[in-house]
Amino acid sequence: MNRELLSKALCEIDESFIAEAYRPVPEATSGSSERIVHMKKKRIFTFALAAALILALGVTAYAIGVSIYRQRQEELREQLQIDENQVTDYVEYPVVEEPEKAPVEGVTLLSSMNDGEFQRFWVVINGVTPEMVARLESAEQVDWEGQALPANGHRYCIIYATMDGESFFDAMSHFHVRDGYDPESQTLTTECAIPLHELEQGQKVALRFVMAECIDYEMDHSEAELVCEFGSVDVERTGQAVRTVWFPEPVSFENGAYGKGEFLGAEISALGVNWILRHDGVSQMYRSHEFADEAERQAYLDLEQSWLAAIEEVERTAAVHFADGTSREVGLPLSSSKPEGDTVKDACLFGSGTINLDQVVSITIGGKTFPVE
Amino acid sequence: MEDSKIISLFFERSEQAIEELDRKHGPTVKRTAANILKDRLDVEECVSDTYLRTWNSIPPQAPNPLASYVCRIAHNLAIDRYHANTAEKRNGKYDLVLDEIEECIPSGMSVETELEAKELGASINRFLSSLSKEDRFLFVRRYWYADSVRELATMTNGSPNRISVRLFRLREKLRNTLTKEGLLV
């Protein structure tokens, strides 16, 4: 194989795909941002990072006579196909309707939905400048000495929500910064997801939205330096509409290192599917990512890789089927819950929008189809 | 400065165009080159050549978006320089990218001529069209921008292993696509 020609084939990748995946790297930051806290290690389980929905948020210009908040609510409602799919557990919050009275600072809560694993919130964050967005869309600074970069040599910025000053929930994936940003109003419309085990029923918590510069790759934000604080909103858990299926015959998967495990069932919501997995090795696999040394870390990562390959081999064939004969593929998961005993839930989203939960008649996984009663 | 204003400066043949281009897109251009080239001097020369080539091509061209246009120039120049370099100067990071893509080429296929490279490129584009936006992002960032798995994990808030598995699946899917299309056999 001629590697030079192989790389030339990659050079043929279409300009539109290059532009779509383009993420700017900011100029080197100057000065030092205020170092406010050595934030505590996040309590939540490292795997419990919610995959965000693929939505083209906040891309339209101002509509006349309607506040930006009301307009964003309408856009979200349309993009999530709430009315079309008769989604009953999507909650919209009251917002200022008149543009002249709409607040131009702070954070405004638009809507919320409980998907069975995460409480998802959509918010508008005011005061996000184009310079901030450029920093958000970058993942690192290049080391111009051409040396291999140490893990702590990379910097990136992220906007996230904090609760009680110690737990961190990523407000967005970098995928969505550009889609959700409106430079005219300097607002960012985005999604924030809290694992349900962190938000008890009836508990009201204040989510504080900040932008910070982080140093490491491990996403624990333990050395985060505050760049900006945008404001906070009070949130609580909402009701959920989930259809649970327990498979009469569990679907098995095999992990080379730990042996066989089973998919016991699924929780289907309008947004996605949570697979319920059982395996003796669950507590070892879904553990905290704190390691005694590099050897332990590497051994764990090898096992994790093998584990993920085994379960995703089964999950990637999954689909839900509707009464009208159509089907929808279930995407691969990017997040998992905190394990309970020997079971854990692997959360998948449909990717964009919702489904009509009432119309689901069956679900397929691992080549087996089960009726949804 | 808006990209359209930078383009206007190029059309006016104002040297400020290069300054503004460097200010706005310079870090990304440098990173694109640095992901492929190991040597700092090579990277700096590649960036200078990119600006020269941009200067020579605008006008008549007026690319929109400008960012990916200059990144493509930097990428292609870096690839040429990468292959021209001696083995000891090669970049392990980009070697890995090529190793992974080489795995996708089914046995029996070969890429030995420019024409075959173009055909393979066209197949890869058809494959990319069939992917979700998220998967396409991962593929292009990994195999065109040459970002590491850890960098992708940071960008997407996913774990490195999740990203590795997704990329493995994408390579498998590409391999199946190429096999079905039966090109280059």
| Assembly annotation | heterodimer
Superfamily (CATH H level) name of the largest domain in chain B = Winged helix-like DNA-binding domain superfamily/Winged helix DNA-binding domain
What low-confidence regions of chain B span 5 or more consecutive residues with pLDDT below 50? none
The CATH level-2 architecture of the largest domain in chain B is identified as Orthogonal Bundle
Total count of strands of chain A: 18
- Tell me the radius of gyration of chain A: 22 Å
Mean pLDDT of chain B: 83
Instruction: From the 3D structure, determine the CATH topology of the largest domain in chain B.
Output: Arc Repressor Mutant, subunit A
Stretches of chain A where pLDDT is under 50 for at least 5 consecutive residues are 26-50, 139-154, 166-176, 216-222
Helix content estimate of chain B: over 70%
Walk me through the structure.
The complex is a heterodimer of chains A (373) and B (185). Chain A folds into two domains: 33-236, no CATH class; 243-371, no CATH class. Chain A is 17% helix and 33% strand. Chain A is built from seven helices and 18 strands. Chain A has a five-stranded antiparallel β-sheet with strand order 1-2-3-7-6. A five-stranded antiparallel β-sheet of chain A has the order 10-11-12-16-15, covered by helices on one side. Chain A is globular, with a radius of gyration of 22 Å. Residues 26-50, 139-154, 166-176 and 216-222 of chain A have low confidence and may be disordered. By secondary structure, chain B is mainly α. Chain B has helices at 3-11, 16-34, 40-57, 66-84, 92-104, 114-129, 133-143, 149-156, 160-181. In chain B, helix 1 (3-11) crosses helix 2 (16-34), helix 2 crosses helix 4 and helix 5 (92-104) crosses helix 9 (160-181). The longest helix of chain B is centred in the last third of the chain and has 22 residues, at 160-181. Classes of the chains: A alpha+beta (373), B mainly alpha (185).
